[in-house]
Design goal:
Layout lengths: L2 H16 L18 H21 L18 H16 L7 E4 L2 E4 H22 L8 H11 L4 H4 L17 H8 L10
Antiparallel strand pairs: 1-2
Helix pairs in contact: 1-3, 1-4, 2-3, 2-4, 4-5
Length: 192
């Protein structure tokens, strides 16, 4: 799978979870320490909006919001769908070999999309868990994720800003659950 296809599939997977959450679900605790479901949405939406602006306009300003849920304006579902629509437009037909200036230096569009594409699936799982919605990470995305992450030194991947330390997968874990454990999450996590 190419990064643009994984990214577009990730947008669809994340959107499929977002539309299932009701107004009372956004304040639920998420698997991301200290974040509510709304914070997961705000984090993903802010990152996707930033990336879409980089692709469309060639530059963008990253403005962190704490907590990330404060970035969400109005109805969470409508806010997300507006961002997802802009991102789909920005990615559709983009030249994956084009080089742009990213916060961590020049990189190709393909490289720039790879981690956010994976992040969409992981955070779809996070958001789903907050409301008891089962989310399965497809095998081809798991393979893509390892292809993207495995070459990166562990010290850059295993940090508070990327993935926590790998967690043990329960006996008989599905490939999706094992992958979620690999990203530093407890695949058996449930809201209190």
């Amino acid at each position: 799978m190419t990064p643009d296809h994984v990214f577009l599939d990730g947008l669809a997977a994340f959107s499929a979870v977002v539309v299932q959450l009701g107004p009372g679900d956004w304040e639920r605790t998420s698997p991301c320490a200290g974040w509510r479901a709304l914070d997961v949405l705000g984090h993903v939406g802010s990152a996707v909006r930033f990336g879409a602006a980089l692709l469309s306009e060639g530059e963008a300003q990253w403005k962190p919001v704490d907590p990330p849920g404060n970035a969400v304006e109005g109805d969470p579902v409508q806010w997300w769908e507006s961002i997802a629509s802009s991102a789909r437009d920005a990615v559709a037909g983009t030249d994956l070999s084009r080089v742009f200036d990213a916060p961590r230096g020049p990189r190709s569009v393909a490289d720039g999309l790879s981690f956010p594409a994976l992040d969409l699936f992981v955070h779809a799982w996070d958001l789903g868990r907050t409301a008891g919605i089962a989310v399965v990470v497809p095998p081809e995305v798991i393979e893509f994720g390892h292809h993207v992450i495995d070459p990166i030194p562990a010290g850059q991947v295993r940090s508070a800003s990327v993935f926590a330390d790998e967690q043990p997968a329960p006996a008989g874990a599905t490939p999706s659950d094992a992958f979620i454990a690999w990203t530093g999450r407890d695949p058996q996590w449930s809201p209190a």
